[in-house]
Amino acid sequence: MFGRRxxxxxxxxxxxxxxxxxxxxxxxxxxAPAFHKxxxxxxxxxxxxRDAGFAPDDERGNAPTADNRLAVFAAANQRLQERTxxxxxxxxxxxxxxxxxxxxxxxxxxxxxxxGAFLYAQMDLIGYxxxxxxxxxxxxxxxxxxxxxxxxxxxxxxTQAMTEHVIGWKARHDALxxxxxIPAGGGRNVAHEQYEMERDAxxxxxxxxxxxxKPRIIEDLLRKG
Length: 225
What we know:
Elements: H1 12-15, H2 37-41, H3 43-51, H4 65-95, E1 100-104, H5 108-111, H6 116-122, E2 133-137, H7 140-146, H8 156-179, H9 193-224
Antiparallel strand pairs: 1-2
Helix pairs in contact: 8-9
Region (Disordered): 1-37
C-alpha cells in the first residue's frame, strides 16, 4: 500500500514497435510527417503536440515517430504532474493535508509491453490523460484526512484484467483492418468513414471501461484498508 511508481512509455523497444504503415503518407517532398492532420485538429492531442514543441508545418514533424512520441509522453506527464499538484493544493486547502499520487488503470506495464503501441499508435490514447488516472493517497494521513484510498503501487489483478481487455480490443481492431482491406499496422490515418466510426467507437469503449473500473478499484482498496 502507498506505493508511488507511475510511469510509462519510456522503453525504446516498445516505441520501436510503431510500424511505418501506421504513419501518414509522404508529402510532396517525400517526407512522411510523424503526426497526421487529424491529430493536429484534435483539441486534446493537438494541444499536447504544441506543448511538446511541435508545429503542424515544422520540419520537426518529419522526425522519427518514436522520438516525437517520447516528447508527447513527456508533455502529457508534465500535465499530469500539474493536475496532481492542483489536486493536492485544493484538497489541502479543504482538509489541511493532502499528498495524493496518480494511479493508472491501464498501467505502465501494459503501455510499455507488446500491446502498448496499439493503444497509443492506433487508438491515439495516452495513459497520463484523465480518463486513465485515479488520485490515491500516498500516506495514511491523506487517507484519514481526505478519505482517499491508499495507493497500492501495483495491482496485479487489475493489470491482468486490463491486459486481457486490451488483447481483445486489439483483436477486434485487427478484424476491422481486415474487413476494410487496410494493411496490418495501419488504420490511424486511413480516410475511410465507416472504419473511422468503428475505430472511434472502440476507442470510446476503452475509455469507458477505464472509467467503469475506477470506482471498483477505489471500493476494493478502501475495503481492504
